[in-house]
TrEMBL record:
Residues 265-276 have a biased composition (Basic and acidic residues). SUPFAM superfamilies: Winged helix' DNA-binding domain. Residues 318-417 form the Plasmid replication protein C C-terminal domain. Pfam families: RP-C (PF03428), RP-C_C (PF11800). InterPro entries: RepABC_RepC, RepC_C, RepC_N, WH_DNA-bd_sf. Residues 237-256, 261-288 are annotated as: Disordered. It comes from the Bacteria. This is Replication protein C. Residues 13-184 form the Plasmid replication protein C N-terminal domain.
Length: 425
């Protein structure tokens, strides 16, 4: 007879390097910084991220609500000792399904598990009867990762909001384009036929609007709006902005110049004469800025630019940025502080197609706040179709900031002036 091989029963769940890392991470939890209510809300919100499904979210919420609220205080231990059979009864699923979902939550880094040799779950208490450890389902990793997961939920919701805004704008533009096509009487039949074919071609390229990406929808919307302006025989936006081009004197000496403005209804400070630096720091309105201040020098070769001495970058108020960049509202951003605007920079870069490297270089050269303003200005010009390569435009701004030739305040005030002019007209 041959040797009989005895297969020992495996003890506990399979341990992978990732699960071992999650266990180590759970041990560093600062218990008492997050409440049970916050984790319960987070568990219900994680389904929108795609990290877990609805049934797993239900199980996670049941685990969180099983632990007493005082277990999340500094002296507590948020560990669940219920069996899979009891959990299956509470959520209305089979025992095997609960076991598989616990493994999925473990792999996602939302729980950690410590199984005993006989697969029982029980607490380990000290001499005072307090739970110091135990074999069960440990929720401490949720405390460690709460800020990360909460920020992920916020980002996904912001992206969904921006996608919904792009979808509504596209559908409105498509409807308006078809109405404009039927109402355009001055164009010839041949022109109307070509424009109509182009509108339908855009619609066919987009396909099912609800399944199209936000980038495709924004590009299609821009094209449809341009076709509407063509059918309505409206002047080009660049021609409208040309009216304010000569409002600021382009000649400067030693970093200072006299500003002489023309008489415009929206400008309440025509008689004031002040330096460029003083206006950047103190001017509450942007009526005296001009298109020249929109970093037109970015389009010129570097040999055409006289390099001035490096000047400290002037700061602008957040309200000036919001007034100058209505695209923030268009894409679903509503920053109430500089911190909000800074946190929105990665998402703005994705909307505009700016690479992570270009954003990192801008932050390194300008600082987070100034880089946020630069990205916002780039997003506005991309939304106006004045910039075809937002990433290259931001890199050019970064190079000029390194050389001391970038004046973001002028760009902000100039954009605000253009918006004021367009609204009044």
């Amino acid at each position: 007879m041959g040797n009989t091989q005895i297969h020992q029963r495996p003890i506990g769940r399979r341990i992978t390097p990732q699960r071992a890392q999650f266990r180590r991470l759970a041990e560093s939890a600062d218990i008492g910084t997050v409440t049970r209510a916050q984790l319960a809300v987070l568990a219900q919100s994680l389904t929108c991220t795609g990290l877990i499904n609805g049934t797993e979210s239900h199980l996670l919420a049941a685990l969180i609500n099983t632990v007493p609220a005082e277990s999340f205080d500094r002296s507590g231990r948020p560990i669940v000792f219920k069996s899979n059979q009891q959990l299956a009864f509470e959520i209305g699923r089979s025992v095997g399904r609960v076991s598989r979902m616990l493994s999925s939550l473990f792999d996602a880094g939302l729980i950690t598990m410590q199984d005993s040799g006989n697969y029982k779950r029980y607490p380990i208490r000290n001499g005072d009867g307090e739970i110091t450890d135990g074999c069960g389902i440990d929720l401490r990793i949720l405390i460690v990762r709460y800020a990360e997961l909460d920020e992920l939920v916020r980002q996904v919701r912001a992206q969904k909001k921006a996608a919904d805004a792009a979808l509504r704008r596209y559908r409105g533009a498509l409807r308006n384009a078809r109405y404009a096509l039927s109402a355009a009487a001055r164009l010839s039949e041949d022109s109307l036929s070509r424009i109509g074919a182009r509108i339908e071609r855009v619609s066919n390229i987009v396909g099912i609007a609800g399944k199209a990406s936000s980038r495709v929808l924004r590009r299609a919307t821009a094209l449809l709006e341009w076709l509407i302006e063509r059918m309505m025989e409206l002047p080009r936006r660049s021609a409208e902005a040309q009216e304010t081009q000569n409002m600021t004197c382009p000649h400067a000496e030693n970093g200072m110049h006299k500003q002489i403005t023309t008489s415009h209804p929206f400008d309440e400070s025509n008689q004031e004469r002040r330096s460029t630096n003083a206006e950047q720091l103190n001017s509450p309105k942007a009526g005296s800025a001009s298109k020249w201040a929109f970093e037109e020098s970015l389009r010129r070769g570097r040999s055409e630019i006289n390099k001035p001495r490096r000047l400290r970058q002037a700061m602008v108020a957040l309200q000036d940025v919001l007034r100058a960049v209505p695209a923030l509202k268009t894409y679903g951003f509503a920053p109430s502080s500089w911190a909000d605007l800074t946190r929105a920079v990665p998402l703005m870069c994705r909307f505009a197609g700016i690479s992570e490297d270009a954003r990192a270089r801008a932050v390194e050269q300008m600082g987070e706040q100034q880089a946020a303003v630069a990205v916002a200005v780039t997003l506005e010009k991309y939304d106006r179709q004045e910039v075809s390569s937002p990433g290259g435009y931001l890199r050019a701004m970064t190079d000029r900031a390194r050389a001391g030739e970038l004046h973001l305040a002028r760009s902000v005030f100039g954009l605000a002036a253009r918006n004021s002019t367009e609204v009044r007209h």
